[in-house]
Specification:
By secondary structure, this protein is α+β, with helices and mostly antiparallel strands. It is built from eight helices and nine strands. The strands form two sheets. Strands 3, 4, 5, 6, 7, 8 and 9 form a seven-stranded antiparallel sheet that branches. Strands 1-2 form a two-stranded antiparallel ribbon.
């Protein structure tokens, strides 16, 4: 029997995937309770979470509906999950821009540890900005060590990757790509991130951003390190 958090996550995912769109009427408390086999109180708690996140609203005479502009900013990992469920890379109103590829000597201690590379070793970095209805919401950064780009040289080419690197890697090596635990922390945004997110702040002003990260690996070791940097104030599901 699911709890209120699982029920909220179910509807949150439907909204993010576009299965529920602005103005759609939500199931009544009674119908939702019947659907999930729970009591009314559990449903009310689930709906209250979605209301607090700005995803649904109560409208007199209409009941509970999906909010006109539900803003759910998701990570690259969540996009992979959505692609597996729906075949769609982006949800309603989503797109990405500014796809850049760079070769750099890695110096960040966290990245070196995650990828098991030595400081100064050359890696491939891919950067893009995700947008919701034309508004920048997050910056995605992917870092790949040589053993990954040797098998998936497409990662070194400019432009958007049309396929998940892990699927290509598995096809060519027969080894499964496994996603690690996603973690989150806050830090000060770099000037490049401030510009990519189009934040209107005075020069040299410190801006705190939320960063989530995850490492992908196979049985031989790490293959990729992904970071998502979110604009201040964005709603970011961590389930």
């Amino acid at each position: 029997m699911p709890g209120y958090a699982e029920i909220a996550s179910h509807f949150r995912r439907q909204i993010a995937d576009g299965e529920l769109t602005p103005g759609n009427k939500m199931l009544s408390y009674a119908d939702t309770a019947k659907k999930f086999g729970v009591n009314r109180t559990t449903v009310i708690r689930a709906y209250d979470i979605l209301k607090s996140e700005g995803l649904i609203v109560s409208v007199p005479g209409k009941g509970t509906i999906v909010a006109e502009r539900p803003s759910v900013v998701i990570s690259g990992v969540d996009r992979l999950d959505r692609m597996n469920r729906t075949g769609r890379r982006y949800g309603p109103g989503e797109d990405s821009t500014g796809h850049h590829v760079m070769r750099r000597s890695v110096v960040d201690a966290d990245v070196c540890q995650a990828l098991n590379v030595e400081p100064g070793e050359e890696v491939v970095i891919r950067i893009r900005t995700f947008r919701q209805n034309g508004r920048p919401t997050s910056v995605g950064v992917s870092v790949y060590p040589p053993r990954t780009t040797d098998k998936v040289p497409e990662l070194t080419e400019e432009g958007r990757m049309e396929r998940y690197f892990g699927d290509i890697y598995t096809e060519r090596t027969g080894r499964e790509v496994v996603e690690g635990q996603r973690t989150g922390h806050a830090r000060q945004a770099s000037q490049d991130e401030i510009e990519a997110l189009q934040l209107d702040v005075p020069a040299q002003m410190a801006v705190a951003v939320l960063v989530t990260s995850v490492t992908f690996h196979d049985e031989e070791g790490p293959l990729a390190y992904w970071e998502d940097v979110y604009a201040p104030g964005e709603r970011v599901p961590m389930s």
